[in-house]
Design brief:
18 helices, about 400 residues
Length: about 400
């Protein structure tokens, strides 16, 4: 048994995850009534979500408390990359929606939702997350609040004695070890998630919305395989695809099945460590990216909003649609402050075209129907690009300084 476990651990994690995917598909098709299998997926996602807030708090505190003066991080560059990618995602979605207009068969059943009244409310919610109670922030996995407290405590602990800093580092290392143990269970977790997805949702319910899904997924794939590589190339001046494919393979696959940027934070942190990136940078950029780097959400908001526009027969000029791409980028960055994420921001975007709220809520209902694929692709794009742009910023800095750098994949 011990030899079997050792051989299993020698297989790469990605290969083990693919085995889990295949096992989940086979089990779902052969014994769909064995619903107990889904518990593996639920436990895996819950474990990742449980460890992520503590990991972020301790890792950021430790990194900042030990931060040496004069050591530059790449946070400004990464924030610029996050913002550029999210805006371009909204713009690409607008262009695609004009090229391939979609009409929806509106549905009911989403009338109990309470979307935000305006962009000010979204941003206000986001700001209040910054000043959240630290215990409450940990309990509710409010990463903006966790980051704010971790940064402030890290700065305050810079003058602490070395023993205190070492103790903090030891706790950080201990939680990182727990993360490794949880991630090693990914194949079982993915198997349970795949089984649950196939048996609970199937794909037949998505056929009526095939064209909408093609536009949505097409935009996200275009961002992942064309726009993001272009952004990377302009920064590092090397072939971007080895890095892009590495991030999609190592981070995007797990994010696709967990459908949670928060659950993917520990995985991205671990990947940054393996890629030998600067801990002072990625300890902040990864949890921050899980909150504000929302290219996939910008695509969802723009595509579904313009689908509503086409459905009700409103004539829209490209200038107004361009405003939508800006609004979707800003709203997507604040999506974490709204229960329901990107879908609940659709009525807000629809309001700039004068679409009634009852119609907009029906569009949200359509979003929930296709959510099994829409949310998976959205999360995979969002989370893998957190890792991608964190690495890009570091490599770009080394290039500008004339230093040689190796892209660890």
């Amino acid at each position: 048994m011990k030899k079997l476990i050792l051989k299993w651990n020698q297989v790469s994690l990605v290969q083990r995850i693919f085995m889990g995917i295949i096992a989940g598909i086979v089990l779902a098709l052969s014994i769909p009534d064995a619903t107990g299998i889904t518990i593996f997926g639920s436990l895996f996602v819950s474990a990742l979500k449980a460890v992520a807030p503590v990991l972020v708090l301790l890792l950021v505190m430790s990194a900042i408390s030990k931060h040496k003066k004069g050591h530059q991080t790449n946070i400004k560059t990464i924030l610029a990359l996050y913002g550029l990618s999210t805006f371009l995602a909204g713009l690409i979605a607008v262009i695609a929606s004009f090229m391939f207009p979609v009409n929806l068969s509106l549905v009911t059943g989403a009338n109990d939702l309470t979307p935000p009244n305006g962009i000010v409310e979204v941003l206000k919610t986001l700001l209040f997350q910054v000043v959240d109670n630290p215990v409450n922030a940990l309990i509710k996995a409010n990463y903006i609040g966790i980051l704010a407290w971790a940064i402030l405590l890290g700065i305050a602990l810079r003058n602490a004695n070395d023993n205190t800093k070492d103790s903090l580092a030891n706790f950080s290392d201990a939680v990182s070890q727990i993360v490794k143990w949880v991630i090693s269970l990914a194949p079982l977790g993915i198997m349970g998630l795949v089984f649950d997805s196939i048996t609970a949702n199937g794909l037949s319910s998505l056929l009526d919305y095939g064209k909408l899904l093609i536009v949505l997924i097409g935009c996200m794939l275009f961002m992942a395989l064309v726009i993001n590589p272009l952004i990377v190339y302009l920064n590092i001046r090397r072939n971007p695809y080895p890095l892009v494919f590495h991030c999609l393979k190592e981070s995007g696959i797990t994010a696709f099945f967990t459908r949670s940027s928060a659950a993917n934070i520990p995985i991205n942190m671990r990947l940054c460590e393996k890629m030998e990136l600067d801990a002072d940078t990625y300890s902040v950029s990864i949890p921050l990216g899980a909150t504000i780097n929302m290219a996939g959400a910008a695509v969802t908001i723009s595509v579904l909003t313009l689908a509503a526009v086409h459905t009700v027969g409103i004539e829209v000029d490209f200038g107004t649609a361009l405003i939508l791409s800006v609004l979707s980028a800003v709203a997507a960055a604040g999506a974490s402050g709204v229960a329901g994420g990107s879908l609940l921001l659709i009525p807000l975007a629809c309001s700039i075209f004068g679409i009634p709220n009852d119609v907009a809520i029906q569009v949200v209902g359509v979003g929930f129907i296709i959510g099994v694929l829409q949310d998976s692709f959205e999360t995979a794009l969002n989370s893998s690009s957190d890792l991608l742009f964190t690495a890009t910023a570091e490599y770009a800095k080394k290039r500008k300084e004339g230093k040689e750098f190796v892209i660890h994949t």
